[in-house]
Automatic annotation (TrEMBL):
It holds the Pfam family Glycos_transf_2. InterPro entries: DUF2062, Glyco_trans_2-like, Nucleotide-diphossugar_trans. GO terms for biological process: protein N-linked glycosylation. The lineage of its organism: Bacteria, Pseudomonadati, Bacteroidota, Flavobacteriia, Flavobacteriales. The keyword Ribosomal protein does not apply. Keywords: Membrane, Transmembrane, Transmembrane helix. It comes from the Bacteria. This is DUF2062 domain-containing protein. The chain crosses the membrane at residues 217-235, 271-295, 315-332, 353-379. It comes from Paenimyroides baculatum.
Amino acid sequence: MNIVQNNKTWCVIIPTYNNAKTLKRVIDGVLNYTNHIFIVNDGSTDETADILENYKQLYILNVAQNKGKGNALQLGFKKALSLNYDYALTIDSDGQHYPSDIPVFLEELNAATEPVLLIGSRNMTHESVPKKSSFGNRFSNFWFQFETGIKLTDTQSGYRLYPLKHLPKRFFTKKFEFEIEVIVRTAWKNIQVKNVPIQVLYDPNERVSHFRPFRDFTRISILNTVLVLITLLYIKPRNILLKFKKKSFKAFLKEDILQTNDTNEVKALSLALGVFIGIVPVWGFQTFLSIFLAAIFKLNKTISFVGSNISLPPFIPFIVLASLKVGSFFVGESGEILIDFDNISFDSIKNHLLQYIVGSTILATFMSLLLGLTCYVILNFYNRKATV
């Protein structure tokens, strides 16, 4: 089979660790399609080295001590890039993947007009698939969608086609969790990530799994926690700002807010949530909380983010003063502002913290209700006018 597809060169990377029972079958199967193969022997202690002696015509990369699948893949990527390959197809050596599915990836690559990362989608409902693998895949799919907005049916399959020149330059993980990091961070670069259908075989008599449930699941959970925080604090706000910069304010308002598929109630609630978060005293966390809570309550994250920007720096003095004024009716003598505004400072605000917290909470509630209801009325008017 030609190693050039859609003007892009491709190779195969096979990471392996103590899979002597199935390794030869996998290599021979791949050789039916190409001899541009990189095998990364990740410190195997079984008969792997003896088997690889029969494949000296291939690129063999030996790691003295087992360092993890992520490290093995990165070594393969680095070597393939040094030889100027555009894409690398990775296939596990435990026998679960069928080399006969290689054309499925190549057909999709041929049809692609932009760089793409393809992930083989296994039939996880097949009776041979362990329940823990099926659960782990659903868990991974959920967080991948939350972190990227992309819905996939399989995010854990190791059968993948990577766009080598469009991957992140550096990675932070070395073991199983690497396969999550690489697809999330590649998606963040606006590279298309999609599934292609593949076959799967789980043979308990042959397959050797090196996944350690407690330790590796903990690593994956920690990684997802970090990725979620980055998503909420940086990626989501960045994407919204990029959308805004690419369009005029009128186009942004029309296409990303008014013409979304959300109902008017959801849009109004999203704005109300954002305004509330923007006024209450959670300085520095408004973006995180507005997007996070919008995701939790299935509201419009863009509108919630826009609403939270009521606390932009030019507006902060007015919010603080209004909060203190409102708070003065509930803390201290009614109607009196218990602070010298001619000498306002952080210390003076700190000394009247209770007044400020009470006032800002009440003000946030009132403003969120007011602007939410106003938004709802305007949207209804806009929709009626549009249908006339």
